[in-house]
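User: Sequence in, structure out. Go.
Assistant: Echoing your sequence, followed by the structure tokens.
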Amino acid sequence: MANETLSMADLDRIIEMAWEDRTSFEAIELQFGLKEKEVIALMRKNMKQSSFKMWRKRTNGRTTKHASLRNIVTTRFKSKLQKTISHNKISKR
């Protein structure tokens, strides 16, 4: 398993990415070389049992966590406020 060589910053980033709904396991594998089973083991080892169970319940069956199950719409997130942002200021509504 590759997580013995991970820095604390990498470990924190992997956990953060695993919690994000729109970040797929494939994206984590591409960036850090960890397969889904390795991410699950890493999460189990580095989280409280109750937090791990909550995370697994949340990710189980979620199509956005697997690139092959995603539809084209979920490939990129676009904020609803994006149209109203100009020159780093949110315009009046």
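User: And one key feature?
Assistant: The chain has one domain: 2-90.
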